[in-house]
Amino acid sequence: MFFLCYIPQMCFKNLTGTRLRVMIWVGFVVGCVAKFVTGSLFVYNVYQDDIKQTFNYTQKEMEIQPSLLNLGLGVGFLPGMIYDRFGPTVTSLVGLFVSVGSYMLLWSTTRFIDFYKTAGGLVSVYFMFCGLGSVFTYMVALNTNVINFSEKHRGKIVGGLNCFFAGSPSVFSVVFYKLIQNAEDHADSFATFMAFFAILFAFVDIVCALFLRVYKKRDEEVYTVDPSKIEDDINNKANTEQNSDPKSKPEVQLNDLSGVNSQSENKCCTPQKSQKVEPKTLKEILIDVDFYLLIGMFSCASSIGLVYLNNLTVISKSVHLDHKDQDLVLIVPITNALISVTIGFASDFFQEKIQRMVILMFSCFLYVGLTVLAMLLGDSYTALCFATFFCGLGTGIIWSLTPTVMSEMFHISNLGRNWGIALLFAALLGMAGQYSFGALYDEQKPENELFCYGLHCVAGGLGVCVGFSVLAVVFGIILMLHRGIKLSR
After folding, report:
1. Which residues pair with 256 in a beta bridge?
2. What angle do CA 326, 328, 333 make, to 5 degrees?
3. 169 Cβ contact partners less than 8 Å away, ≥ 6 residues apart
4. Sign of CA pseudo-dihedral 258, 259, 262, 265
5. How far is CA 222 from the centre of its chain?
6. Is the pTM above the cut of 0.85?
7. How much of the chain is helix, strand and coil, in % rounded to 5?
8. Which of 76, 147, 277, 410 could form a cystine bridge with 269, CB 3.0-4.6 A?
9. Residue (of 127, 120, 61) closest to 445 by Cα position
């Protein structure tokens, strides 16, 4: 670990001009690869049937597994705080051990099938650690690149990263169906896929530890930033601000790893526009009404996407459309990927004309449409395709723009912490949605049967999603009205 932490700092601590731009773009490419691998979280629906037939779990037990997988992703405030304190290298290495270890534990379950048939809760815990390991990689890729690029390009950068995050499930689905799935041995299919993910995370986390760095520029010299100094320097400046010229802007001194004495500068990685927003402590964030409204809107909307996506093959099987699974599971990731990169460019280009919050509200209305359509007409293949397409659009928008909006509303200096809290709320709400879906499904299922057939089997769970979508719209409208009132004062 010492070798990985020390060598890149020696190589990259002094960069200028072209070399700087190359390393920043290398970091973006590495971030895209990292995001691509973390997108594997959203292919649970392609192998869940193999788990169910291997261990004979009920649908309620099956719903707990992706719920805890998402909960692991939702504990993102821990990796976010580790990132803010120690930087990308340490965060990547922690993710390496957690991800590889948890996926190998899932691989081992097929060696002890009789034991794990009655220990479904333990399997769910393994999935939770998979999600936790993934979010370390996710945070490193997102935060490092958001900081390294200027604010005017932030929408494009987040959208580009999310394009790989959102689009990778389509690739992993094809890999599973074409190269890994063994129709005669469900246990082997599941075990091989888990080992495949363990290898991928080992590779990508090592690459992130080697190449992802946070840079700041001063007089054509660039140094890696110690993220732990940012908040301390801001707080120290605030204490001395009263004794300084009230007309002068507060400055923050950042220490580089090279040991060269830095001069006082403007806040790190904070473009001029975002200096209007002051960084907030954890206590200040937790009492901010706008913060809760934003994460409430995001949590309700994103939980719908997760519940619908994870249960897409359950819905199709219930209405006898499971022979279309290989096509259906590709709609969301492909649509998601395309809209992610498109919305990133569009939101930056039209930022002065169309607020990002307006686009987020549009995504919430998409979720209302998809849930109502699936609940009422889900037994029609055409309607199911449209609902799935709406899910891809909404998911691409909400996951691409919410981090950008959050950094603009609450400053970029603690984006890892703030975004991690939002992920936790989303995961908890998603867990409630998935558990409700499974419980309502099992109530409709005939006794001693493994599957339930008919639209009525999934209508109850989809009805819960309709409620979440309406709540997302309500939170979004209140947030826009509240901020409008504050800005008008």
Report:
1. 225
2. 100
3. 39, 40, 42, 43, 329, 332, 333
4. positive
5. 30
6. no
7. 80, 5, 20
8. 147
9. 61
- What one-character DSSP code corresponds to residue 311? T
Residue of 136, 78, 126, 41 lying closest to 424 (CA atoms):
78
The residues near 46 (Cβ < 8 Å, ≥ 6 apart) are 172, 173, 176, 177, 313, 325, 329
DSSP letter for each residue of 375-415? HHHTTSHHHHHHHHHHHHHHHHHHHHHHHHHHHHHH-STTH
Q: What is the pLDDT along the chain (489 residues), one digit of tens a residue?
A: 444 444 444 344 555 678 888 888 898 999 999 999 998 888 888 898 899 889 988 888 888 888 888 888 777 678 878 887 888 999 999 999 999 999 999 999 999 999 999 888 899 999 999 999 998 998 899 888 888 887 777 777 877 887 888 788 888 988 998 889 877 788 999 999 999 999 999 999 999 999 888 876 543 344 444 555 555 555 565 555 555 554 444 444 444 434 434 333 333 333 344 446 667 777 888 888 889 999 999 999 989 988 898 888 889 989 998 888 888 888 888 887 788 777 767 766 666 666 788 888 999 999 999 999 999 998 899 999 999 999 988 888 888 888 888 888 887 777 777 887 888 888 889 888 988 998 898 888 887 777 889 999 999 999 999 999 999 999 999 998 988 777 776
Q: 127: which strand partners?
A: none
Please give the C-alpha separations between residue 17 and each of 8, 23, 222, in angstroms, as whole numbers: 18, 10, 9
User: Which burial class, exposed, middle or buried, applies to 292 when counting CB atoms under 10 A from its CB (0-12, 13-18, 19+)?
Assistant: middle
Count the neighbouring beta carbons within 10 Å of the beta carbon of residue 79: 29
Residue 299: name the closest of 168, 460, 476 by CA: 476
Q: How far apart are CA 164 and CA 176, in angstroms?
A: 18
Residue 29 neighbours by CB under 8 Å, 6+ apart = none
Contact 206, 96 (CB under 8 A): yes
3-state secondary structure 10-38: HHHCCECHHHHHHHHHHHHHHHHHHHHHH
Angstrom distance (rounded) from CA 75 to CA 275: 29
Q: With left for phi above 0 and alpha for psi between -120 and 50, is residue 17 left, alpha or beta? A: left
DSSP code, position 183: T
Instruction: Give me the residues paired with residue 221 across strands.
Output: 218
Q: Look up tokens 């998402």; give the residue.
A: 70
Which CA distances in Å does 249 have to 43, 241, 324, 389, 394?
Answer: 48, 9, 60, 48, 40
Quick one: tokens of 22? 């190359």
CA angle 156, 161, 163 (to 5 degrees): 90
> Two tokens at 322?
């499971």
